[in-house]
Amino acid sequence: MKTDYGRLGGEALKRLEESAQGADAAQTKFLLDWLNENKDTEFGKRHGFAQINSPWEYQDKVPLFSYEDYARDIERIIDGEKNILTARDAVYFCVSSGTVSDEKYIPLTGYDLEAHYIFMYGAVFGQIRDYYKELSEKDIFGKIFQTGEFAKTYMPDGRMSGIRSSCVYQWLDENGGFDASDYCVPKEILFPETPEDKLYLKVRFALAERNITAIHGVFINRIAGVTEYILHNWELLLNDIEYGTVSVEIPEEQRRYIAGKLPPDPERAGELRRIPRENLSDGIIGKIWKNVKYILAIGGDCFSYYTGKMRGYAGDIPLHHFVYAASEGVFGLAEHVDSPDRYMLLPESVFFEFMPVGEDKRPLLMGEVEIGGKYELIVTNRSGLYRYRLGDVVRVVGRHKKAPVVKFCYRRNQVINVAGEKSNRQQLDTAVKRFAGLTRTEVVEYCVREDFSGIAPGYLFYMECRNAPRNVAGIFERCMCEANPEYRACRNTREIKPLRIEYLREGSFKRYERMLAESGREMAQSKIPHFLNTEEKKKFFAAQVMGGEEKV
């Protein structure tokens, strides 16, 4: 049965608007109800939840925590122990990168997944409905091209696990109940038995469907990559559509599946062939699917390269940057369709605290933040993370009713991020150390910047080495892939191009320190600029290059 997206979206958006109007009260109610529910857990007893009657008492009694503080309790939850962090059982474990060598597990309760369903899934459809008030729901909600897949993976005891973006789909389909009839890709492709690349299959089903009204993804680089795949394989794909053939190397099982599901369709192939080849990429989405109303993907400044590419591919079709979320929770919804980098925080999803950047003071509550202020977010989520230092730094850029509207600035200890890979300092340090060991090189220091030259973004490393080695960029590339699985995935899909190394003249970092001292800056505050995030830093180190660029 087709999902009633208009009703689902309308109810979710109404709830959000009501909570935004009374944001402070909604936050307090959420916090106190949640503490009361969990007062008899081990954690609740440990921190006196039963005696807490206000957000300020909560701040006084419960210290700030990081993931490492929860690691042992989470291990016990994974082992099957109950009533440790929450009275509710964990039903899903979010898997994300923690340290270089270990995966980080975030237990999720059904209560958390309910918030995900309402605010990250349902409310989006309400926003689309409002954006196209003049159109019928039939015109807006037709077939969805979902560019991702949601492999069903499990913990050893059978509880679900995976990434945040797939949790609600696995949860809804736990007993086979998710209705996939609104998707152009069959359910068995959306929910593969194992994580694997099914790009060709998804593209074939999408091109066969004329009435696609939406393209969904998580990050915009993924949708840009799918679009470029279509462009680069245009004639091959059209021939396969026309004759029902498969002209790429895929497993035999997938080949048989295509043959059984997609017979020859010369009519559709003819329609696509009539699209003029000149400037094919300009507005290609609307040329292929004439009824597409929106493209759903997180973009903006953190994905500037791919956002720009998608603007060209989408033409007049709006991009909806829909959500601000992480493994630890769903935090914000895009303020409007086609408005990047503006997320209204969700008062009922988590309890927020805001630590002013550079100040040692009590974290502020939602009603206390100032527009223009920059804050590190601290969250209490629906799954047992209390006063958790998320590591995200945001700037308040406005208010939606009484809920702050924020722009994501950066993540503590993580600055470089060109395609969603989020390489942090620890990962870069590990890659450099491995590289130095394998090449028997002494790396004095290094720094890195985004490289937006060429057809895809990448990394440009500046290294000051003793006896700089040659022809070793490929070794360093492997070290980066080992240190950061997300980087490796983006390299495998060619969303990030091969990295480059440029060697610096001896003493470059010492000269940088002297430059700071001569400019009157406090040297006690000076740190090695591992991430070149200002034009001043980029220009300085570019001028120190001694030549001999290395690339993969």
TrEMBL record:
GO (cellular component) term, any one: cytoplasm
InterPro entries: GH3, GH3_C, GH3_M
Pfam families tied to this protein: GH3, GH3_C, GH3_M
Domain of life: Bacteria
Domain GH3 middle stretches: 343-411
Domain GH3 C-terminal, chain residue ranges per copy: 426-535
Gene Ontology terms, MF aspect: acid-amino acid ligase activity
Protein name: GH3 auxin-responsive promoter family protein
